[in-house]
Amino acid sequence: DIDDVGHKYYLELELEDVLDKESTVNCAAEVLYHLGSKNIAPDVQFTLERELKSTEEADNMFYSQIRSLEKELVAQNIPDSHGHVPPELEPIRRLAWAASGYVIWQNSTESTHFHLAQIKHVKQVKRTDAFLQFDYVVLLHEMVSQ
C-alpha cells in the first residue's frame, strides 16, 4: 500500500511464445493501481530476462497472405461455438488479442478480470497504400461480474 496513491504489486512471471510454446522468457513487473479514479489505467513497468523471439518471418507470411487475397477478408465468430479457430484466421485472432489487451489495460481495476471472449466480426478495410487495416467487433468477458 502506498498512502494516498494506490496499491503496488510486484510480479515474477514466465511469458510463453504463442507461436512456439517451447520458448519462454522470464519477466519481472511492477503494477500500480491508483486509488479513487477508475479512469486512470494502472502503471506497469517490466523487465525481460532476454529479448523476445522475432516474429518478423510470421508477420511477413501473414502480410503476404492477406495482400494476395482477391477480396478483402471478412470473418465472424472466431472462435466458433465449439472453440475452433481455423488456422488461417489465427493471426487475425492474435491481432485482436493485442488490441483488446490495450483496451483491457486501460479499463482494468484491481477487481476486474477481462479477457477476449470472441471476435464477433472482422472486416479488412480497403486501402490504397501498402498497409493493412482491419475493423473488429470483439466481445470482452469480465469474469468477476460474469
UniProtKB/TrEMBL annotation:
The keyword Hydrolase does not apply. Keywords: Protease inhibitor, Repeat. SUPFAM superfamilies: Cystatin/monellin. GO terms for molecular function: metalloendopeptidase inhibitor activity. Transmembrane segments: none annotated. Residues 1-57, 74-146 form the Cystatin LXN-type domain. One of its GO terms (cellular component) is extracellular space. InterPro entries: CYSTATIN_LXN (IPR049897), Cystatin_sf (IPR046350), Latexin (IPR009684). PANTHER family: LATEXIN (PTHR28591). Belongs to the protease inhibitor I47 (latexin) family. This is LXN protein. It comes from Calyptomena viridis (Lesser green broadbill). The gene is Lxn.
